[in-house]
Amino acid sequence: MSFYLADMFRAFGPATFIAALYAGLLLKAARTTLAAEERLRRHLTFIAVPALIAGIAIGAFAFFWADGAAALTEAKMVMEGACLAAALLAILSAPFALRFSAARFVALPIFALLVAILTAQAALVFADDTTTHALTATSVLNTELILNVLAVVIAAAALGAFAAAVSHAASRTPLIGLGLLVLAVLIEAAVWGGDVMLGLLQVGWLQVTSARVSLVAKADYYAEAAVYAELVLALILGAAFLLRAPRPAVLSDDLAGQARTERRKLKAFALGERRWFRGLAAAMTFIVASMLYYDLYASQPPRLSEATPVSVDDQGTVRIPIDQVKDGTLHRFAYVSSDGHRVRFFLINRFDAEHVAIGVVYDACMICGDKGYIQRGNEIICIACNVRIFVPSIGKAGGCNPIPLKHEEANGDIVIAQLELEKGARFFSEVVSTDVTDPVTGEPLVNTDAPFSFEFEGRTYYFTGEDSYDAFRDAPEKYSHEPLAPARVSWQPED
Amino acid sequence: MFTRLLQQSFRRDWRRKLLAIFTIVLATTLMTALASLSIDVGDKMAREMKAYGSNIKVVPKSDSIPLTIGGVNYNPLSGRDYLNEADLPKIKDIFWRNNITGLTPFLTLPVTLGSAEDDHVPLIGTYFHKLMPVEGFDNFFTGVTVTHPFWQVTGTWPEEDSLDQVLVGETLAERQGLKPGATLTLTSAEGKSRNVTVSGIVEASEEEAGGIVAPLALAQDLAGLSGKVGSVSVSALTIPENSLSRKARSDPSSLDAQQYDTWYCSAYVSAIVHQIEEALPNASARPIWQVADSEGVVIGKIQLLMAVVALAAFASSAMAISSLLNTSVMERSREIGLMKALGASEAAILSLFLGEAVIIGIIGGLIGAALGAGLSQIIGLTVFGATITFPGVVVLVVVIASILIALAGSVLPSRTIAALAPVETLYGRR
């Protein structure tokens, strides 16, 4: 449920904000009398609803038409290009609409276009995001299905309230509203621009250069934060609106007649404005709270328990007493290899207290990589793929079982050779700073600061400069240590 | 001011409000009963699909040809084809071998007890806690104690591979007055007979209750089918089904290469079933969805009917609310005219009536949910013969539905409010 709530806001939030700001500017432009404003508000709603429906239909159609990842990228690219154009049109037309009241006959169709295109893009993104989170496990009505649908409905209602409040606030502070519209479009343009460029690179219409790839990567990296940036803009709008709103007037007894009526009208107006502000604040609080709940709590993967660091004795072995690890829980250890990889492994009693058989394995899987395993109750779970591991089988290779670690039992200890742990370095990607030496020059250096590194036969080598790196790369056998793994074979599939 | 107006309205006009609440209660009771039945089964199905363990049944391929008419199996090959006991360790040799926690073979044949010629009872041969030789697993014990942990035995389990010890199902034991330690003579259709001791009484599922459970070796001996088994139950640690595995289950060849790899290398029950079929070429395996195969079929078929009934209840009660509210608007037209004359906006007056509608909806919805919960238990007992777990989400759904009923009923009255002109109402012309 929390996923659907958060993802609705993530997908539709920016679109709602931009369209509502534009609607607010139009409201301001037409305001001559209260009745005229009310009439325009109704017009805008009547335009927005069919445009929304059309947008959702377009987005859904694009999603189902796009079969496969490549077609989806193209659909997104086209959609986001259209969004850029529509948003630009809106920004250009907004000052005219504010200045000349006749311009609204152009602005209203632009509003319809903006709503439809932004909604279509948001619907496509939402549909794509939700493919990995099933709406329901079965076709028969069930609690999960109801809660997920309810989340979508609640999110839509909150966005509707947010849109109404934003457009009202923007109509009261039109210049700030215009500025925020430009900023909001700029933020989204960065996200859309990055996606469009990625699409162009993938389709092959743009040459792949490292600068372009880096730009796309940055845009993608910050895309997650875009919706929060939009919310900050909404906060600024709310603050400006509150400062501009008149204070509720106090009715004193010495006022009478017409003046008293006027004062009362003013008070009613001020109270009404306060209500709008509270509505905006409530909608924003709900949106931010449900997004933060998902991003900071609900979507977080389970955390690994602490790993005990191990030390190597003078015989080049790691010894762990069996008594220490036979209680049936997962005991995680970590060893830092000579090239700085943090090698995690764990020990667990595969049977019960009477039948002690310790499984000794790396905290990594051949299929899923080094995400690791956690214990929940009696179950050992692979974090990456959620598979429950049959505990008696720990220590055997196959399936998603942890990779076995070669070891011996001696005098009630589990004895692991240092060389075996060094071999495990290739299963783990986590690197900690450690002192290493350049294999060519013999100079000492810190691995994480090394300008050049090269992986050869299971070991990573670090170099102080390009010269030694080149020397090593040309003849690695000359400088390398004893191999830990067979040299990587490059394999070209026959096409 | 708003709350004071609402309070007054309820105090002055409580009879009509009560009638409106009653209308909503009627509709929501029906909705609650239907929804909780359906949602209870849906939740059970969802739990089954999302469970981290599955049971798989492996039968000879010819047995899996569906030829069931009216619940009776007409497949002429049924029970004529067998799996080889020697092939069973192959199941522990698939890609997801480590996720197979247990496997139990079954071989069923009819036998007669003692002298009574007509008294045919099923004899079920199986493993209890047998050490199975599996490559790489030095102590893989398997049998019904692993795959069917709910089996309860009074007395002791028979010795594995013994030819003279059996368990007796509880119904049979009661009918024949058998106790642990009693002796029986079992005679098969092939004319073979054995003298056996009853080592215990077993409480298991319906099939075993009226029969005898024996070591597999004894069943094979009596049937003259050495080294053969009729079916195999496999327990596996799996991950919940998702859209990929559903797609694969209907047709693995519809996946592209990458999807196939992802599916094959994930512990979906469909992937494990597929791998078991690869390992045993003449066998057919399928996951057992207990709820989905029984109650789920019933509910799935009548779900649309339920939705139509609920919709009808919704519409009729919304119409009733509409006429009630409309009368109240007409009655209070002077009050409304006065408010308008004092400068109240249409929205403010409308919110007053909507507020009434929402309060009526919430009260009616809560009472309806309580009554419907009771009704659903009665329906559950008469239809499924079991009480149902009341899903809490129903209360939420029903209250929302009843608020929607009340709001839908206020659409027409709100138009009436808009049409009222203060001048006319204050002069009493409307």
TrEMBL record, chain A:
InterPro entries: FtrD-like, YHS_dom. Keywords: Membrane, Transmembrane, Transmembrane helix. The keyword rRNA-binding does not apply. Pfam families: FtrD-like, YHS. It comes from the Bacteria. Residues 436-481 form the YHS domain. This is Uncharacterized membrane protein. It comes from Afifella marina DSM 2698.
TrEMBL record, chain B:
Residues 308-420 form the ABC3 transporter permease C-terminal domain. This is Putative ABC transport system permease protein. Residues 18-223 form the MacB-like periplasmic core domain. Pfam families: FtsX, MacB_PCD. One of its GO terms (cellular component) is plasma membrane. The keyword Disulfide bond does not apply. Belongs to the ABC-4 integral membrane protein family. The keyword Nuclease does not apply. Keywords: Cell membrane, Membrane, Transmembrane, Transmembrane helix. It is a multi-pass membrane protein. The chain crosses the membrane at residues 304-326, 347-372, 378-407. It is found in: Cell membrane. It comes from the Bacteria. GO terms for molecular function: transmembrane transporter activity. It comes from Afifella marina DSM 2698.
